[in-house]
Every structure is written in structure tokens, then in C-alpha cells.
Amino acid sequence: MHAADKPALILGDEILTHGQFQVLKDQVVAALQRDGIAPGDVIAVCAATSLAYVVTFMGCVQCGVVVAPLAPSSSAQDLAAMLANAQSKRLFTDAETLPRLPAPQTDLPRIALDDHPSVGSAWSSWLQTQQAPAPVTPQADWPFNLIYSSGTTGVPKGILQPFGMRWTQIERARDNGYGADTVCLNSTPLYSNTTLVSLIPTLALGGTVVLMKKFDARGYLELAQRHRVTHTMLVPVQYQRLMDFADFEAYDLSHFQAKFCTSAPFRAELKRDILRRWPGTLIEYYGMTEGGGRTELHCHAHPDKLHTVGRPAQGHDIRLIDEQGVQVPAGESGEVVGSSTAMMKGYYRMPEKTSEVEWFSPEGKRFIRTGDVGRFDADGFLILGDRKKDMIISGGFNVYPVDIESVLLQHPGVKECAVVGVSSRLWGETPVAYVVLRTDAVPIDAEALKAWTNAQVGKIQRLANVVVVESMPRSEIGKILKRELRDRHPALP
């Protein structure tokens, strides 16, 4: 088969060959240039997974326009904050996502990826232009995309990743067996960095990407078997659901060459089960969307190290520092900081937030702080301990307790609250709120309060449980002891 005739993208019954993909990308470039959108300008995409979404994203990449992929599951308030920060020139969306969006901004043209008339200009019409695409040669330090991560202040932060960072990921993928014969199954959302680190290299190296709109175990296994999938990137909760699936053994997964995992704590027992029952290698990545240092655990090569997240990747400098920012002696625990060629330029238009996560070594080298605490074993494998931050990782996504707490405190019946991450088999962790109620307010029970809160937060922020308590456990200086609250609550399904 000629390379141009090979499938580039598959979604359900829709297929785009590499030849068709390139034609459409050129049209996106020409349309952007016709509209006066130049390299370094930002466009936002907030939509369900579709071929048009990927084409638009990669068309922007081709001409140096920065893509800000926004999570449709975000609250309207957060979406408004992200759009304001990005100062995007266009918003690409769809009818499915439209109800989640903030009130229309007259100065932000909307383009309907699904051509739905209620959304805005039809994407297929927007593409039509007599203008030929002008060639653009992106540079390593040019901004590539903006990945938003909600901050502990409740203000979303745009992680500005440069082209050089993505190019490094493509080279890493080549080393891990990605190439023209790769068939990669992506079942995480397109706004997730987890998806992009496998989707972009697959397309760049001439392989085939199989997309899922929404993950479910049976659907995933059917696609893997049908398309003879060779590579995949999943988060731990997806691996858990697949390994728990009763008919797992009935599917032919013999074409798998490599499986990857990132985004959340990955239990050693689960890794062991995957190695035993699923063909192909298993590699765990530990790192941040912000970049910096990355570790790799080649589980199949080091079955005795499954309790770790591996060793620093080639060219990645990972160190441990104490509370004063001084490197700790060998064998001691400290905050994980990392430096490499794969590092964000910074948080977009938030220099003060950028400086908060930077650490400079005595020789002046820039590192990114993770907020995680870890130690190296005698063989140089990193063992993670507690996170310094209160962040909860639920289903592979970051959830910040303070964001949910700020909503709870708006309820007239709530005097005090604390949100913690409780162990969950399905989600890895899930948010649970402990609440002290006001005695002088209209009474409200725990279930009603949970429903009220969940109606106002993003999908991934929804509470699994609300526990009413008379008082919070506190330290001598009055700080709520969240660890104690976590330990009180039994694990959830």
C-alpha cells in the first residue's frame, strides 16, 4: 500500500488516509492564514473527539498556530477563565459541547467542527478558500500548544509547551518502537496531554491512530482485536477496568508490541497482572505536563522494581531537594525536581506562577518542581512517597481539593470543609468531602449537599461522598489533618 493510501485516522466507520489528512491540513493552514492568524497566535478547541478536531489541531501545528485544547467537562466558569487567558482568535467547538460553554463572546468567532448551525460557522465551509497554504518552518522555541491545568487558587494555568518539547517526544517514541507500521489506540480525550504524547508521534511517523470517543473495556478490546493494534497509552484506571473485564482473555491481543502508562499512581500488583496476561512490553512514565524530568520504568525488564517509577530517562536530570531548596544527600527523601530539553516555556501570561515551580541548581540550571516527594533506591530507581500538594488524581486527571472546597463553602449550611482523595478501584482516587455544618442555618443532609455541590463543579470534580462531622482533626498550629481524614474513609469501588 502506498503511504498516502494508508489510514492515518480511524474513528468508528470514518477513515482518513494520510493523503486525505494532508489535504485537509493544508486547507486548515490556508484558512487560518486567510483569516490573518499568524504563528504564535492562539486558537482554542473545546469539543468531543472527532476527525475534524485532530485535523484542525495538526493543521495549526503545521503553520505554527498555538492550540489550546480545553476540556468540555470543565465548568463554564473555568472555561471562561481559560478563554480569557488564552486570548484565542477562534473557538472550535460542536453541538455536544455547546451547553457547557460560557455565554458567547462577540469578539470570539465560533466554528462548528460538526457543521451544526447552532454552534457557529460550519467547519467544512470555513475550510473553503482559493488561497494556497504558505509554507511555515516552526522553530524549536516556538510555542506549540497550551494545556490547561486547574491551579490550587482555582485559576486555570496554561502550560505553554514549545515545539522542541514535542519533537523530543517524537524521538522518544521512535526509540520505543513507533513507526510507519504502528497502529496506536487512543481512548483518552484529545485535550489530554496523555493522548497527545502518543497521537502526535504516531501521525508524525506515518502510523495509524485509532480513536475512541469514550472508553469502555469491551469497546476497547474489540477495537484492539479488529485493527491489530500495536501500541497504546492508557491511564491506570483504564488498565484496572480492562484487567477486571470478565472476557479479557477472549480477545486476540497478540499484535501488541508496547503499552504505556502515565498520569497517576500505578499499583505494582496491577503492573504484574498486565505483564502476566497482556502481550507486549509495558512502560510506565512519570513526569509532569509542565515537563522537566521524566522517569521510565520498563516493567518487563525490571519485574523486581514494580514498586518504583523507574530511572531518569536519557538526558533527564532529576534531583531531590529539601524545604530550603537544598539537594538532599543520597538515600534521603526530598521533593522531585527535573530538567531536560522537554520543558514548558512557562505558564501562559502568569510569570509569578511560573517562578513558583522553578528551581535553579547552584550551577544555574533550570528545573521544574513536581510537588512530589520521593527517594532513589540503591539502583537509582525513584520511589514516590506522598505528594506535597493535596492534588487528587482521579481517572488520570488532576483534581484540586481547594477548588471543590471553595464551592462547598458557598453553601449557607456549610461552616467548614475539607476534601480528600480516597482510594477507589475504578478511579484510582476519588474526591470525598468532610463537612462541619452551621447550627444556625437551615439543616441539610449529606446526600443533598453532595447533589448541590456536584451540580456546580466539573465532571471530574464530582464528590463520591459527603461525610458530616462535628469537628475537624487539627495539628497543634490549627491545620486540618487531611491524612487522618483520608485514613478514616474506607476505600470505594
Question: What does the model show?
Answer:
With 493 residues, this protein is of the alpha/beta class. The chain is built from 13 helices and 27 strands. It has three domains: 3-214, Rossmann fold (3-Layer(aba) Sandwich), CATH 3.40.50.12780; 287-387, Roll (Luciferase, domain 3); 392-488, 2-Layer Sandwich (GMP Synthetase, Chain A, domain 3). The protein has helices at residues 18-34, 51-62, 76-86, 123-126, 163-175, 193-204, 217-226, 236-244, 268-277, 351-356, 401-408, 446-454, 482-488; strands at 7-11, 14-17, 42-45, 66-69, 91-93, 110-112, 121-122, 143-150, 156-162, 183-186, 208-211, 231-234, 258-261, 281-286, 295-298, 311-312, 317-321, 334-339, 346-347, 358-360, 366-376, 382-387, 392-394, 397-399, 414-424, 428-437, 465-468. The protein has a nine-stranded mixed sheet, sandwiched between helices. A five-stranded parallel sheet has the order 4-3-5-6-7. The chain starts with 6 loop residues before the first strand and ends in a 5-residue tail after the last helix. The model has no long low-confidence stretch (mean pLDDT 93).
